[in-house]
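Table S5 (text form). Sequence records supplied for joint modeling of the two-component complex.
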Amino acid sequence: DTAVSQTPKYLVTQMGNDKSIKCEQNLGHDTMYWYKQDSKKFLKIMFSYNNKELIINETVPNRFSPKSPDKAHLNLHINSLELGDSAVYFCASSRAAGNYEQYFGPGTRLTVT
Amino acid sequence: QKEVEQNSGPLSVPEGAIASLNCTYSDRGSQSFFWYRQYSGKSPELIMSIYSNGDKEDGRFTAQLNKASQYVSLLIRDSQPSDSATYLCAVNQAGTALIFGKGTTLSVSS
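The corresponding C-alpha cell record, covering 223 residues in total, follows.
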C-alpha cells in the first residue's frame, strides 16, 4: 500500500484555469504538508496542517488554498493559474508537528501553458 | 532568514569509495536534521535522521552532527552506482517546517 499518495501525477493546463491536487496518507499521521519544487529543484514549504488545523502558511499567493477535510487528506486548490506556478508539488506527512520525520508522496508535476 | 547550505556538486566518486556530503545551517535553534535522497523525476526519500551531536550509523550511511559548528554531514561507504542521486539536507526548528538545502548531486562511476 502506498503510504502517501497524490493525484494527479501530471497536470497540464492553461493560464487562468483553476485546478486541484489531492493527497492522502495511510500512515495514521497527524500532520501533512505541501511543498513546491521549482525548476532549479529547490524544495520549499507552502503549507502545513496538524489534525485539520492550518499551522504553517508561508508566503504563498492567496490563489493557493489548502483544505484538509480530515487528518488523512490534504488538498491544494489553485485559482487563476500562472506560468510561474509550473513546478512539482509534493505532499508529505509526519507523525506530529515538530521534529518528526516527514515522508513524501510521489509528486504532481504541474505545467501551465 | 533560516538557511541551509550545500555544495551543489556534482560530487564524483568511483564505485567502492566513500562519498562525503556536507551541509551547514544558519539557525542555532535547529533541533532535528535529515538527509533525503532524490532520484531524477522522483520524490525525496528519507535516508537518515539525526537529533543529537555525534555520529549515527545505518548500514552504509553515517550521519554526523556538530551543533556548535552548525554542521551536518552524510558519509556513504562502499558507494554504488545506484547511490547516484541528489542528496538533500533538511533542518527543522521545533514548530516550523523543514528547511531544505538545494541539494548535492552525487555521481558514482563503475
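Note: Residues 12 and 111 of chain A are 5 Å apart (CA to CA).
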